[in-house]
Design a protein that fits this description.
Blueprint: H1 2-19, E1 22-23, H2 24-31, H3 35-47, E2 51-56, E3 59-64
Antiparallel strand pairs: 1-3, 2-3
Helix pairs in contact: 1-3
């Protein structure tokens, strides 16, 4: 399962690298991940310091560090 988290983190990282800053809804739609898979991938990237997570007007945005 941990390997899957790493693979999914790579998919999210690649998406953000191509598109730039995205809100969580758009990331979820583009990756077609479940909430659990998306949050695990984001947690992986956040723990490694590879993403920024910001909240603006009750919406959460992620971008590469």
């Amino acid at each position: 399962m941990i390997e899957e988290f790493g693979i999914n983190a790579g998919i999210v990282w690649s998406l953000l690298n191509e598109t730039g800053r995205q809100n969580l809804k758009d990331v979820k739609k583009a990756t077609k991940f479940t909430d659990k898979k998306l949050y695990a991938a984001l947690g992986w990237l956040a723990r490694e310091g590879k993403i920024n997570i910001e909240e603006e007007e009750k919406e959460i945005f992620v971008s590469l560090s």
